[in-house]
């Protein structure tokens, strides 16, 4: 990847229970340049936990990769940012977008949209501790703080504090009455607000997120903003990233076939199972590989019928490829 093409041009959103290290390795077999994000890791889990390796470990193949942190203490976030940098992450990302009740009870996530000065302090504290980029993933607002003027004020504060990149989910979060799933679909998308942000903050890299599913949509957004982040579409249809390196990063490498991805996963599964875990921890992430293709249902059934059985291992993929 050339230095003229930023790593954030295309990225996969941090998603709890989904973007673990197995899913990230799988996506990396399909795209070498897409920026990947961890699941959110709370400052408490890092600072009070006994096993940071469990939360922070990743393989070198996953770079470029960003660590997403959840918390509301500038001091704790800065300490965790430094730990993340020492682990080899390429970026520290602050979660100001998650609307779940559990996150709200800890006074972080999307509810921090109501406290731009505190978020700015969080950014500033992290910037003082690390040399890698510090970025913020946030909504366009929350109920009660949902106007464009509120959004502009928020972004102005984090930019002034030194944020290197703003990743904007183009929906407000409704903090009472909607589930996290509903918050991903019910509040209307306001892409124009994100475009306007880019017009008014031309020096701040801005990535748009929310409801984006196709390359046609990606290309359209990239005429208005710097980057596009995909969430559920990346999980449901991971082979969407098959052309990302060539389309958006100028790669000349041959594109991998689905069968080649599965062959490379076999050795990964074998090595992983020698150390820990069960095969379904990995295979659950790859059920969408044949999304939209003839035989997709049979592929999913082949894996799901076998991956929870006693002693299941990489031979499931070997047997599938022999069919």
UniProtKB/TrEMBL annotation:
Q: Listed GO molecular functions?
A: flavin adenine dinucleotide binding; FMN binding; tRNA binding; tRNA-dihydrouridine20 synthase activity
Q: Which Pfam families match?
A: Dus (PF01207)
Return the broad EC class: oxidoreductase
What reactions does this protein catalyze?
A: 5,6-dihydrouridine(20) in tRNA + NADP(+) = uridine(20) in tRNA + NADPH + H(+); 5,6-dihydrouridine(20) in tRNA + NAD(+) = uridine(20) in tRNA + NADH + H(+); 5,6-dihydrouridine(20a) in tRNA + NADP(+) = uridine(20a) in tRNA + NADPH + H(+); 5,6-dihydrouridine(20a) in tRNA + NAD(+) = uridine(20a) in tRNA + NADH + H(+)
UniProt KW Signal keyword: no
Per UniProt, the keywords (alphabetical) are:
Flavoprotein, FMN, NADP, Nucleotide-binding, Oxidoreductase, RNA-binding, tRNA processing, tRNA-binding
What cofactors are annotated for this protein? FMN
Record domain DUS-like FMN-binding: where: 12-320
What positions does the entry give for FMN binding?
14-16, 68, 137, 169, 209-211, 231-232
The record's annotation in InterPro entries points to: Aldolase_TIM (IPR013785), DUS-like_FMN-bd (IPR035587), DUS_fam (IPR001269), DusA (IPR004653), tRNA_hU_synthase_CS (IPR018517)
Annotated active site residues, numbered on this chain, are 98 (proton donor)
Query: EC?
Result: 1.3.1.91
Which residues carry the site feature described as Interacts with tRNA? 95, 181, 184, 297, 300
Please give the family membership noted in the entry.
Answer: Belongs to the Dus family. DusA subfamily. Belongs to the dus family.
**Listed PANTHER family:** FMN-LINKED OXIDOREDUCTASES SUPERFAMILY PROTEIN (PTHR42907:SF1)
Protein purpose: Catalyzes the synthesis of 5,6-dihydrouridine (D), a modified base found in the D-loop of most tRNAs, via the reduction of the C5-C6 double bond in target uridines. Specifically modifies U20 and U20a in tRNAs.
What protein am I looking at? tRNA-dihydrouridine(20/20a) synthase
Source organism per UniProt: Leptospira kanakyensis
